[in-house]
Amino acid sequence: KMPLNLSTKQTHFNDNLTEITSRLKGVVRRHNGGFLAFCPSHGDKKGRSLAVSIGRENQVLMHCFAGCSIHEITAAIDLNPADLFPHKDNVLRYEKKARGGFSAWQMLHVLRGDLIRLQVVVNDLKKIDALPLDDRDFVAEIILRLNDGLTYLEGSK
Question: From what superkingdom does this record's organism come (predicted)?
Answer without folding.
Answer: Bacteria
